[in-house]
Amino acid sequence: MAIISCRRLTKSYRQNDTVTPVLRDVSLDIDAGEFVAIMGPSGSGKSTLLHCMGLLEPIDQGDLVCLGQDAATLPDRAKAAIRRESMGFVFQSFYLVPGLTIRENILMPLLIRRFSGDRDCRVRQLLEQVGLTGRANYRPNQLSGGEQQRVAVARALVGRPDILFLDEPTGNLDSRTGQEILNCVFELVRSAGITAIMVTHDPAMATWCRRIIQIRDGCIDRID
Predict the structure, then answer these.
(1) Is 6:197 a contact under the CB 8 Å cutoff?
(2) Could you give the CA distance from residue 189 to residue 112 in angstroms, rounded to a whole number?
(3) Could you tell me if 155 and 108 are in contact, meaning their C-beta atoms sit under 8 angstroms apart?
(4) Beta-carbon-side half-sphere exposure of residue 147 (alpha carbons within 13 Å)
(5) How many Å apart are CA 103 and CA 106, to the nearest integer?
(6) CA distances from 130 to 1, 123, 182 (A)
(7) How do the residues of the chain divide into helix, strand and coil, expressed in percent and rounded to 5?
């Protein structure tokens, strides 16, 4: 069953009188529980497609159904609610808050959602799952790049989202650390039944995924 469905999705960027097409008539389905990679040359539109599916950017034309809702017509407030309640995001840059501890960084999505359950239990569990037990009171600058990305993964998953979006999550890491991060992500999403969609330029990282969507010049070139 499709958790995300795109039909003839089109997206352009506009600056003054200049219009730059980025996505052209993209149609695809992402099934619940899949781990999918989106690949393509630089500037091909892969990150833009991820951001559109993650409701971070509006589309120009076409249909986009996400978690059973017609996302193309939703107001911004409703999109924000879906992101808050049902989605997690991991980016190439870790975007951790420097002045907060690791525990506080991971807690942020639960505080935004006003989650009233056992927050500390969730944080402790995720710190253990990402291999950072004992680091709860550290600051981001006391961790390596790989450890900071593990924190970003834990923060994205603490709300138990339906969909995890990963935009070049290993781009700032060496290959060995990147493989460790992807192994961690794969085990976490598989055990929880989470749908994961990852943009990557690295074929080795894409091998973790069930399907690879190749994009070229804003169009789907092929799906492997």
Answers:
(1) no
(2) 22
(3) yes
(4) 16
(5) 5
(6) 29, 11, 11
(7) 35, 30, 35
What's the gap between Cα 175 and its chain centre? Answer: 20
> H or E segment at 69?
strand 69-70
Q: Counting beta carbons within 10 angstroms of the beta carbon of residue 112, is it exposed (0 to 12), middle (13 to 18) or buried (19 or more)?
A: exposed
- Tokens for 157, please give them: 């998953």
Q: For residue 208, which amino acid is it? A: W
Residue 190: partners with Cβ closer than 8 Å, 6 or more residues away: 35
Short-list 2, 60, 67, 80, CA closest to 36: 2
Q: How many residues comprise the chain?
A: 224
**Tens digit of pLDDT at every position of the chain (224 positions):** 799 999 999 999 998 889 999 999 999 999 999 999 999 999 999 999 999 999 999 999 999 999 999 998 899 999 999 999 999 999 999 999 999 999 999 999 999 888 877 888 999 999 999 999 999 999 999 999 999 999 999 999 999 999 999 999 998 899 999 999 999 999 999 999 999 999 998 898 899 899 999 999 999 999 98
